[in-house]
Fold:
Amino acid sequence: MRPATAAAGALVVAAAVMALLAFTTGGDGEPPAPTTSAAVDDRERDGLDVWAEQGCGSCHAFAAANAHGEIGPDLDADLDGVPAAYIKESIVAPDKVAAAGYPTGMMPGDFASRIAPDDLDRLVTFLRQNARR
Structure:
């Protein structure tokens, strides 16, 4: 390898490391301040976060999440006034009862194992509180 090529490669690596440090430390060389558990708990309690993490908006329309998916049911119309137990069952056992006009087998059937119970409750609460016609 030529010395100029090796030097250029070392500069590229150094620049990458500096960029990584800037992103992970806030740019001033100091590690980020630890978040308080209350701040983390507040974020974790948000059902919209669970919605986003699970990719619900890629299939479902839901105004409160600014989601416009067209593959699955429009949840504003289908969930307005629906009991929490029905919503929860629709998520964890989606083929048990299909929404009118939608075939079974479209929604992933593994949400019961993918979503932690507390997160599932947060998601259901978010859906119930925000569904509207």
Q: What stands out?
A: The CA atoms of residues 18 and 27 lie 9 Å apart.
